[in-house]
Amino acid sequence: MAVVGRPRGVEDAVILRAATEVLGRVGPSGLTLAAVAREVGLVPGTLVQRFGSKRGLILALADQSVKDADALPDRVRGEHEAALGALAALMTEWTAPLDAPETFANHLAALCADLTDPELHARALDVHRAQRRAIERLLAEAAAGGELRAGADVASLAATVQAVAAGAGLNWALDRRGTLAERVRHELDAVLGPHTAAGDRKA
Fold first, then answer.
1. Which residue ranges make up each domain of the chain?
2. Binning pLDDT at 50, 70 and 90, where does residue 150 land?
3. DSSP secondary structure letter of residue 147
4. 97 near 162, Cβ under 8 Å?
5. Where is the HTH tetR-type domain (predicted)?
6. pTM of the complete model
7. 202 pLDDT higher than 60
8. CATH homologous superfamily for the domain 64-202
9. Residues contacting residue 132 through CB under 8 Å, at least 6 positions apart
10. What is the Cα–Cα distance from 84 to 55, expressed in whole angstroms?
11. What is the SS3 string spanning 46-82?
12. SS3 for 169?
């Protein structure tokens, strides 16, 4: 019996990026193998062969999100001299796919669905923890390098930064003032301002 190999021409990473785009446009209910296949110019059967089912595609997308959450901080850190600059850039990149309130709402709907599914919840939690580690690491670097005032509670500050970023997204989706990136940067500055060395000099 002949073994059918993986169809060539479109890498899995390209398909998963397309799935993210489709999810942002139509939400979890509209995310189908057919819709993603159209996005990348394949037939749905090709996606069935690669991922098995819609659930297989969603699990693969969740796994990729975990990998990205682990890899992105190192790349962003290498592009910035200052740790706080890297933190601001990292949070901007995290929010980049959510560039419209409707897109934000569709991704939020997907997260709400993930919270009721043990396998998807585990992956969402991995992403959450990876992001917390990255924030805490950059804040620790900022403290060690003198960007934050002496004695800053890095762990508590990291938790606050993560929570404020999530809340900023919801507030922005409701009032729709400016861009999400601008809102997150503004809230980050507000949280970190009292803890920076510059803030000490102004006091």
1. 64-202
2. confident
3. S
4. no
5. 9-69
6. 0.87
7. no
8. Tetracycline Repressor, domain 2 (1.10.357.10)
9. 158, 159, 162
10. 38
11. HHHHHHCCHHHHHHHHHHHHHHHHHHHHHHHHHCCCC
12. helix
